[in-house]
Write a sequence for this structure.
């Protein structure tokens, strides 16, 4: 099969998200200037650079109570900061609950029953029990092709690691089982690891 996205795929569901998988989930927390907390999961998320460490997430779509985007991007535009909380499989129900489309004045931490803690270097909350959290200062917000598509880039200026996930100096992801997004309504969890050396190492 071959198709051009602009012409449609003639399938029951769009296969694009199922092709680009698995995708890590950035659980993005932010706060607006009036102190309203927001927490939302984004599967268009990844690390993009080592020095300085940088991450990105992309937001698509709009909310009725925001102008041309969603709460996360609206908040980050105003404050210039956000936190990426890493999602473990044990938090799947809370993560899913935080994805509900709620008024921007509603605190998703409270709505989903998630314990929060104040970040150290930025003015927003983080998921207290997340395996890791990355406090970020925005470097750029890029408009992408299409309506209400934005890529948000941030420099990581503070990192939280849960103590039980550190084993002999290694951040051990098997201690918390990362959750990843697939296509359609599907998810997966990372349980099996293997190592592979590059030819020049």
């Amino acid at each position: 099969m071959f198709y051009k996205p602009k012409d449609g795929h003639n399938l029951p569901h769009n296969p694009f998200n199922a092709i680009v998988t698995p995708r890590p989930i950035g659980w993005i927390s932010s706060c607006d200037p009036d102190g309203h907390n927001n927490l939302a999961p984004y599967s268009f998320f990844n690390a993009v650079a080592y020095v300085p460490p940088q991450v990105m997430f992309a937001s698509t779509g709009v909310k009725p109570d925001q102008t041309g985007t969603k709460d996360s991007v609206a908040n980050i535009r105003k404050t210039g900061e956000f936190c990426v909380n890493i999602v473990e499989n044990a938090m799947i129900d809370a993560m899913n609950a935080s994805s509900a489309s709620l008024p921007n004045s509603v605190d998703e931490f409270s709505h989903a029953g998630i314990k929060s803690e104040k970040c150290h270097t930025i003015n927003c909350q983080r998921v207290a029990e997340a395996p890791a959290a990355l406090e970020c200062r925005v470097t750029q917000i890029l408009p992408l092709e299409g309506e209400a598509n934005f890529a948000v880039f941030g420099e990581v200026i503070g990192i939280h690691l849960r103590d039980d996930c550190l084993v002999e100096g290694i951040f051990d992801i098997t201690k918390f089982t990362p959750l990843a997004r697939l296509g359609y309504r599907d998810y997966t969890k990372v349980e099996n690891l293997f190592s592979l050396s590059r030819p020049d190492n």
In short: The mean pLDDT is 96.
